[in-house]
Structure formats: structure tokens, C-alpha cells
Amino acid sequence: MINTLADITKFVEDKKFKKIFILCGKNSFATSGAENLFSKIIKKEKKFYFKNSEIPVLDELINIIKEFKNFKPDLFLAIGGGAVIDYAKIANIVDIRSDLTELIKNYSYPFKKKYTKLAVVPTTAGSGAEVTSNAVIYLDKIKYSFESELLIPDHFFLIPEFLISAPQKIKASAGFDAIAQALESLVSVKSNNQSVDYATKSLKVSVNSFISFLNDPSLKNAAEMSIASNLAGKAISISKTTAPHAASYPFTSLYNISHGHAVGLFFEKFFKFNYENLNYSETSFNLKKRFDLIFSLFNVSDINTFSSKISLIKKKANLEDDLIKLNINIKENSTNILKGINLLRLGNNPVKITGKDIIKIINS
User: Fold this and answer.
1) Predicted TM-score (pTM) above 0.90
2) H helices of 141-192, where?
3) CATH code at position 75
4) Which residues contact 35 (CB under 8 A, 6 or more apart)?
5) Is 364 a residue whose pLDDT tops 90?
6) Which candidate, 319, 290, 9, places its Cα nearest to that of 173?
7) Domain count, the chain
């Protein structure tokens, strides 16, 4: 599953690719070492687009689509984190049209085909975007999703060398996102045997490698986090995410808190809510047994110890969840927070949960 620099070199040098459109993040492209590699190996006609927005937004997406389709490449290469990869996935199957905003808001875009081959190279270990059938876009600070099998990239390359030099905050946020995705996948109403297998394998790696990757990054633990992220991505591509992800998006758009960090803000509270309401589970599987699996993976015996372990992981990763320190006032901004909650993801929660429940949970 792990690739080498020789793998990606051989791929882009293939004679069938005459023109290559490269979408990347300006900072991550340089700091990851990708710029140094790709400036040497891509001798063909190429065009770079450096994304500006921290999160995927419609205005920039439209600019990317224009640049990409005007260039008419036969390979779309996305090198970066989740935002870069999501932009590329959407741009490769979406056209600019007058009703695009409405189609996005109604989750009703009529997907038809890919424009060209899409290959992605993650520079973070966390989103799993290289294997998921969804991609996000923000409109007026509210997050929406595109969902289609056509969004899945044609090729991906996991190159540990590109992960090591990422800023600590990005590694921490992305890594926690991988852990959260796998855990949410295990309790999602849409989970099945395959997603449980992916999520379980992911957690067996990430729980043991995440903190060492942050404190003492090496090719070994970078490779392990790449694999964990990829497996978590495969899990949520099947099961989708639940309440922690649904509630995270307004904290990213309103308070500029990175995605994985935002997911972690109230993570333990949502899992405790689900556990304390096992009798109201809407899953086709035994939710109590699924929690028993989670406790086993974390080597704990109950929900309180599990919560403490998650809190400790966040603390070691310097993912602050004190709302006062983060300058977040839930009561003052509850209307905008509720507006930003993703209802699609909320519907996957194993226990029915409303916006009012969420405000109560995050205020507790």
C-alpha cells in the first residue's frame, strides 16, 4: 500500500500523459518536499494551480474548474491535504453552470463522468480523501457534500517522505481526524462488515502510532499513519461519519479551527451520549457490542475510561478543547452553529440526535 518516490516518478513519466494539471497547496507543496521532486520529474507541459483558501469554498472551486478545463490536461494531479484533494475530486466531475449553487445546497448535482484521469498524493495523514466517494465544499460558511463513486480518484500514492515535515498542528489535526473517522465508522448506522474491518485495522495502527508520529516522526510511523488514514477513509466511504463530524463544520468555518481539531472538540461527549442512549439505538447491529469492540481496541473497560483516553490523546497532541481558551461562546453564537451543522452526517448517528441535543451536549 505504501509507495516510493520511484512509483510516482514512473507514473507521471508515462507517455500517455502529455499535459498535466497540478493542484497543490503552496506551503505544503514546498515543505513536504513534493516541489523538489516534481520540478525534476515532470518535463511535460504542465500547469500549476496553488489553492489559497484553508477550506474548500465555491469561488475558488470555480476558478480551479476554469483553469483546469481551459488547459485541457490528460492527467489531473492533486498534491496536498484534504482540501486540495476535495477540490480536485469535485473539479474533475463538476461543470460551471448557473444553477450550481442550488444543486449543491439540494445535494442534487447530476454527476455524469470524469473529465480526465485523477491521481492524488496526500501530504497529510488523516482525511483519507484519496479513497472516499465524497468531497466537501463550503457555501456562505456552511458545509455541503458531493457524493458519488465518480469522486473516487483513479490513482493514489502514499509517500511517507511527504508527511514528515508538515507543521505539528496539521499533523495533529489530521491524525486525530483519522482516529475519529474510524471510531465514527464503527457506530454509524450505515456500517457493515467491510467498514468494520477497515476501521478496526485503522485503529490498531493509529492508536499506537499517532503520538509517536507527532513527537518523533520517522518514515516508519509516517507510513503507519498513512495506512491508518487510508483505511479510515475506506471505512467512512462505506459508512459515512456521524455526530462529531456533523457538529464540527461550523467551528471550522466560524472560528477557523482546523477540521480534525474541530471534530475533536466534543468527541467524547458525543460518544458518551450514544453510549448512554444504547436503548434508543437505530442501528441494525448491536450497538453495545460495537462499543465493546471499541473498548477492546483502546484497552479500556467502560465509557468513562474511553473518554479519558481520548482526552489524553488530544492533550498529548496539543488539541485544545477548552472553549474559553479558544474564545468560543456557544450561547452567543448558537444560531449560526446550528445553521452550520451537517444534517446529512447527523442522520448517520446511531442514536437519533437533534440540533437542540447538540447544543445541550456541547454546552455540558
Assistant:
1) yes
2) 168-187
3) 3.40.50.1970
4) 29
5) no
6) 319
7) 2
